[in-house]
Amino acid sequence: MQTIKGLSAPVAVWVAALLLAGCAGFPTTAEQVGQATPAAPELEIQSWRTEQGAKVMFVPSPALPMLDVRLVMDAGSARDGDQPGVAALTSALLGEGAEGLSVDDIARGFEDRGARFSTGSYQDMGVISLRTLSRPRWRDDAVDLLARVIGTPTFPEDALERIRTSALQGLKMEKQVPGPQVNKAFQRTLFGDHPYGHPQSGTLESLPGIERDDLVAFHQRYYAAGNAVIALVGDVSREQAEAIAEQLSEALPRGDAAPELARAERLKERVTEHVDFPSNQTHILIGNQATWRGHPDHVPLYVGNYILGGGGFASLLTQKVREEKGYVYGVSSFFKPMAAGGPFILQLQTANDNADQALALSMGIVRDFIENGPAEAQLEAAKANILGSRALETADNSDIIGQLGAIGFYDLPLDYLQRFNQRVEAVTVEEIRAAFQRALDADRLAIVSIGPRAPQTDRQ
Q1: Cβ–Cβ under 8 Å, residues 94 and 215
Q2: Radius of gyration for the alpha carbons in the chain, expressed in angstroms and rounded
């Protein structure tokens, strides 16, 4: 027997035997693998509403002396109206000043308490996050400061000009690289005049016209308590969570939930668009409207796409287009479910000389998958990988707070995570094929590209 480096022969033999004994517990058959599937995440999610109308989502987690707070508002770029970029600017200026507080006071106030504060703006939502120690002295001061920041932002003119100038410079720089340009062209093609159709960051034309009063009005309307979800995860009791939620809700402007957005419509025919750009690569995006948050086919579409293009090197697109043919540098696909729509998106990058072949092969794989679905062996492998990775999505409080905010914002059932895992385990090849046929038509997909010339397919 080969000895283990650094150990005497008798000890090495003992260690090797111990390791081999441990291996005996590893799953080695399909049945054992199934039995070893991670259990569905079980979170003790509690939910209620504050007096001001905010929805509260709470998970007690006493393992660490930390508290995560996330406010999720229906205040994303879909609420920009005729001022693209106003949601992003409003979000960016939260924390730049509040009544009686300068930007330095706010930054130093959170830092001195060991707390982290951040904001974010997306198509559906505006997000405000706080992570702090849960000990009352630190927690209470951090929450007090957060309440002042979200309740009385001053949107200073100098900060607006600075952030606006930075945003405009960013938009000008985007014209020098292909990725952002093709993404925006794809978004316009898929959504048109729908509120999802304009860039989240605004445009060169819209940003200069946004004034401080526009930010104040946007905050008053869309950062209202009745338009908010307050998610709490950490080492606090239900009573403490209720007090924190009430304090934050009380600090927000009064107001109701934003009206529902109209559902984005699917393209009814093949649409192609090309952006001329002097690059060595061609970027191609393919897709159409297919789903939305809460769609009954979410799980079969999710699992099916994992096999098609979402599973990295295990996916069909990567195996056939990249590994077997070498046509692309990278290729993947995904569904992006949102409140009022959710496109299927296939994206690839290829050398210009390979663009025609890469596009034709990718389209053929999609067409075949819609018609026939996956093989049984592919489905079983995907289930094991998905369930294994899902166990990590609630591994710590920062993961849980993200899940909690989404469950509350999209009004999903409190046992959504458990239901998802159960549906993944039960989904069949037939369900995936039927779901893809309901969601997608290979002859009605948008093809948007950027490069020296438009790639050609056999179905233009």
Answers
A1: no
A2: 25
